[in-house]
Amino acid sequence: MNSYIEKIKDYQYSNPLTLFYCGHENCKPCYSYGPAIRPHYLVHFILKGKGIYYEGGNTHTLSAGNGFLITPGQTTTYRADLEDPWEYCWIGFDGYEAKTILKNCGLSEESLIFQIKVEVIRDCLLTLVNSFRNQLGNEYTYLSYLYQCFSFLKQNIGIKPQEYTETYLKKAIEYLHQNYSYPIQIGDVAQHIGIDRTYLYKLFMQNKKISPKQYLIIYRLQVACHLLKETELSISEIAYSCGFHDGAALSRHFKNKYRISPMAYRKS
């Protein structure tokens, strides 16, 4: 048995990283797996609920926002809670760079438990699982999502929750300021910075007291005010330059905000 485990640990992979399988499960109460060993790395990301993870004589009581690593040749068991069974995604992978990647994310045989921001990583995990199960892409597609998951894990190292908020909010505002003239959707902003749309909405409401959509409209109107005063562009040209689909849309939003028409503002 020991020689088999050593063989698993010492196996030499030819690729830096290979995704073997992945999945998503809403577990039934007390559903368990193990004791068993795996020939490769396996990571579980807990999205909801609670459960217990047993490894090496240790017992870890985990819940939504936690995750756990299973290393090659390690005997483990995990079980869903009776009253609040967990929902999780899992990823099975290995490769000659896998150990280094995990180490860079703060994970190793000595550090198996980690924290995640469910609202940030959930979409990436579910997209990976859906793409892999339905063959929506190729091995590079799947690896791109896998590396994105590692990116989220690495961001967790030494970063305080407030720093997450500041970083995501700053990126969102920068994106809006650079793309306001295009017909962008708030979903585009969330996708660009890699977070859930609902989480983006919460960030703006908590820090700006307005929604991302309201912020975008206000910023477009501020640019419109500048163009009305500083240029001789027509109302239609200003509307298109600010991301409104026509002059009527600009006038409607302008009157709602400033109680005056764009033309009257220009003449004032």
From TrEMBL:
Q: Sorted alphabetically, which keywords does the UniProt record give?
A: Activator, Cytoplasm, DNA-binding, Transcription, Transcription regulation
Q: Which residues form a coiled coil?
A: none
Where does the source fall among the domains of life? Bacteria
Q: Where is the signal peptide?
A: none
* InterPro entries on file: AraC-bd, AraC_XylS_family_regulators, Homeodomain-like_sf, HTH-like, HTH_AraC, HTH_AraC-typ_CS
Q: Which Gene3D superfamilies match?
A: Homeodomain-like, Regulatory protein AraC
| Pfam families according to UniProt | AraC_binding, HTH_18
Q: Which CDD domains match?
A: cupin_MmsR-like_N (cd06986)
Q: Name one GO molecular function term.
A: DNA-binding transcription factor activity
Protein name, entry field: AraC family transcriptional regulator
Source organism of the structure:
Anaerocolumna cellulosilytica
